[in-house]
C-alpha cells in the first residue's frame, strides 16, 4: 500500500482537477495541442473522468480529472482518490484552480486510494500514480491519518483465524511499543479475579481466552479514554446467528480497530493529551460453558444484567470496560463499537451514528466531520426509553423485547456504566459493502478522523 506522498524533489507533471462548469476556462489555459487533445477526447469534467495529456516526447505531460458538479459532490467524496487507479503511472502535482476542492481532503483521498489488503494474495500490487503533497497542506498529518486508517482496515479485514483475541492483543501491544509505552493484558480467569465478570462470561466459551487490553500514553494534558469493542468473531452464542448474518462477523472487532487507528493518530501527532485505551477482546462462541439466555450477570460496578439474547454481547463487554474507565477522573470517554443492526437500518453503512451527553460536543464533532470528509450523524440518548432496558428481575436488560429503537436502547445501556462522565458513543458499521472512491470493499474507519479533528474543541487543546 502507498500511504505517503512522493518527494517534492521528484520530477512531476500537473494534475488538473476541473469542475464540470469550469471546463471551458480550464481548457483555455492549456497549450493549444493539449486543449485540442482534451476536446477531442470528450472531456466534460464529469466526476472521476480522466484524460491524460500527451507530451511532445511521447510521454505524459499532465492529466485532467473531472470534479463534477454540485450534485456529484453531494453524493460522493474523494473524487481525486477515485481517479488514482486510472491515471497513467507517474508523479503529479495537484492544481485545483478550476475546482472548489479542499486540497487536504482530495490529497487524503489520494493516499487512501493507495490501500490494498494483500495479506493472502501471492501477486504483487499494481503500480499506482504518485503525487507530491499539494502546497499548503499538512503532509505529515495527512500521511498519519492515511496510515492510521490503513491499520484499521487491515485489522478489520483479517479473518478471525488470524485476528482472534490473542492477535488483537498483539496488535495493540505492537502499536503501544511503537510509541514507547507498555500494554497490559488481563486474560482468562484473571478477569474474574480482577472483577471483569461480563467480559469473562461472554468470552469463556471460546478456544481463545477473553482479554482486557489496556495501554496509556502521554503524561500531561486532559485525559481522553477510548474504549473499543473487540469481539473478534460473533456467532451469536447460544442465540446462534443464521449463516448469512454470520458472514461478516470477523468485523465485529471494528470498534477496537477504529480506536487503535485513532490512538495511533493521536500518538503520532503528539497531541497534548493523556490517552488511555481499553479494548475488551473476546470471541462469542458456543460450547458447554457458553453464557445462556436468562442468566443474570453482575457487572464490574455491581449492576445486574438479565441476558435475554446472547447475541447482544458487545454491550456486556463494553460495560465492564466503561465501569473501569470511570474509576478515575477522565475528561472525555469515547466508545466505538459495531454494536447494532438497528443503526444500519436507521442510517445505512456509510453514515456513522454517534451519541453525546453534551450538545456542545455533538456540535464540535459535526463541524469537524464535514471538514475531513468523515460523515457522522447524532442519535439521541432518549430518556423516555430508559424503562425499556429495565426488565424488573435485574437492574438492566441486555436485549429489550419488541425490537424498537435498538441502537438507542443499546446506547442507554452503556450510558448506565459511565455515570455523570462526559461521554460519546459510536455505533458504527466499519465495513464498505461496495467499492467507492478511496474506499475499496472491506473494512473501513468511521469516526476517527472526525474525532481527531474535533479534539482541539472537545478537550481545549
Helix-strand layout with pairing:
Elements: E1 13-19, H1 23-28, H2 32-40, E2 50-54, E3 60-68, H3 70-75, H4 79-83, E4 91-98, H5 103-112, E5 130-131, H6 139-157, H7 165-178, E6 183-187, H8 190-193, H9 197-203, E7 211-217, E8 223-228, E9 230-234, H10 243-246, H11 254-268, E10 274-284, E11 296-298, E12 304-306, H12 314-325, E13 332-337, H13 341-347, E14 352-356, H14 359-371, E15 376-378, E16 396-397, H15 406-415, E17 423-427, E18 431-432, E19 442-443, H16 448-459
Parallel strand pairs: 1-3, 1-4, 4-5, 8-10, 8-13, 9-10, 12-16, 13-17, 14-15
Antiparallel strand pairs: 2-3, 6-7, 7-10, 11-12, 14-17, 18-19
List key phrases describing it.
9-stranded mixed sheet; 2 domains; 21% strand; 461 residues; 19 strands; 5-stranded mixed sheet; Leucine Aminopeptidase, subunit E, domain 1; Aminopeptidase
Summarize the entry for a quick read.
With 461 residues, this protein is an alpha/beta fold.
Task: State the distance separating the first and last CA atoms.
Answer: 32 Å
| Main sheet summary | 9 strands, mixed
Stretches with pLDDT under 50, minimum 5 residues:
none
Tally of separate helices: 16
Which structural category fits the helices and strands?
Answer: alpha/beta
What is the CA-based Rg, rounded? 24 Å
Shape type:
elongated
According to CATH, the fold-level topology of the largest domain is Aminopeptidase
Corresponding CATH architecture of the largest domain: 3-Layer(aba) Sandwich
- Average pLDDT reading: 96
CATH H-level name of the largest domain... which superfamily? Answer: Zn peptidases
Query: Which percent band covers the strand fraction?
Result: 15-25%
Amino acid at each position: 500500500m502507498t500511504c505517503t506522498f512522493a518527494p517534492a524533489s521528484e520530477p512531476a507533471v500537473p494534475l488538473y482537477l476541473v469542475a464540470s462548469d469550469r471546463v471551458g476556462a480550464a481548457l483555455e489555459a492549456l497549450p493549444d495541442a493539449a486543449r485540442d487533445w482534451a476536446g477531442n477526447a470528450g472531456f466534460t469534467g464529469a466526476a472521476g473522468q480522466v484524460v491524460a495529456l500527451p507530451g511532445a516526447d511521447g510521454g505524459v505531460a499532465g492529466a485532467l480529472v473531472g470534479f463534477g458538479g454540485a450534485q456529484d459532490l453531494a453524493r460522493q467524496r474523494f473524487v481525486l482518490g477515485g481517479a488514482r487507479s486510472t491515471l497513467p503511472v507517474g508523479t503529479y502535482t495537484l492544481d485545483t484552480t478550476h475546482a472548489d476542492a479542499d486540497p487536504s481532503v482530495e490529497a487524503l483521498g489520494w493516499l487512501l486510494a493507495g490501500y490494498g489488503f494483500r495479506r493472502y494474495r501471492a501477486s504483487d500490487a499494481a503500480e499506482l500514480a504518485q503525487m507530491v503533497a499539494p502546497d499548503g497542506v499538512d503532509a505529515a498529518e495527512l500521511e498519519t491519518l492515511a496510515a492510521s486508517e490503513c491499520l484499521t482496515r487491515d485489522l478489520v479485514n483479517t479473518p478471525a483465524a488470524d485476528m482472534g483475541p490473542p492477535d488483537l492483543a498483539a496488535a495493540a501491544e505492537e502499536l503501544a511499543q511503537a510509541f514507547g509505552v507498555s500494554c497490559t493484558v488481563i486474560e482468562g480467569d484473571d478477569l474474574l479475579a480482577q472483577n471483569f465478570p461480563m467480559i469473562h462470561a461472554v468470552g469463556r466459551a471460546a478456544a481463545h481466552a477473553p482479554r482486557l487490553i489496556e495501554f496509556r500514553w502521554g503524561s500531561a494534558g486532559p485525559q481522553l479514554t477510548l474504549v473499543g469493542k473487540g469481539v473478534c468473531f460473533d456467532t451469536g452464542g447460544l442465540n446462534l446467528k443464521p449463516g448469512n448474518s454470520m458472514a461478516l462477523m470477523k468485523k465485529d472487532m471494528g470498534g477496537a480497530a477504529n480506536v487503535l487507528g485513532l490512538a495511533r493518530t493521536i500518538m503520532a501527532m503528539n497531541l497534548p493529551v493523556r490517552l488511555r485505551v481499553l479494548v475488551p477482546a473476546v470471541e462469542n462462541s458456543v460450547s458447554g460453558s457458553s453464557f445462556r439466555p436468562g442468566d443474570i450477570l453482575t457487572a464490574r460496578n455491581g449492576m445486574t444484567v438479565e441476558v435475554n439474547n446472547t447475541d447482544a454481547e458487545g454491550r456486556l463487554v463494553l460495560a465492564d470496560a466503561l465501569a473501569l474507565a470511570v474509576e478515575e477522573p477522565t475528561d472525555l470517554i469515547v466508545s466505538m463499537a459495531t454494536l447494532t443492526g438497528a443503526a444500519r437500518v436507521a442510517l445505512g453503512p456509510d453514515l456513522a451514528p454517534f451519541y453525546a451527553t453534551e450538545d456542545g460536543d455533538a456540535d464540535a464533532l459535526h463541524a469537524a466531520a464535514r471538514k475531513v470528509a468523515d460523515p457522522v450523524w447524532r442519535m439521541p440518548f432518549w430518556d423516555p426509553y430508559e424503562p425499556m432496558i429495565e426488565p424488573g428481575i435485574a437492574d438492566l436488560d441486555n436485549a429489550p423485547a419488541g425490537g424498537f429503537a435498538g441502537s438507542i436502547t443499546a446506547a442507554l445501556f452503556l450510558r448506565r456504566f459511565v455515570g455523570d462522565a462526559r461521554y460519546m458513543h459510536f455505533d458504527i458499521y466499519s465495513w464498505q459493502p461496495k467499492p467507492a472512491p478511496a474506499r475499496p470493499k472491506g473494512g473501513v474507519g468511521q469516526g476517527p478522523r472526525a474525532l481527531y479533528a474535533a479534539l482541539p474543541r472537545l478537550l481545549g487543546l
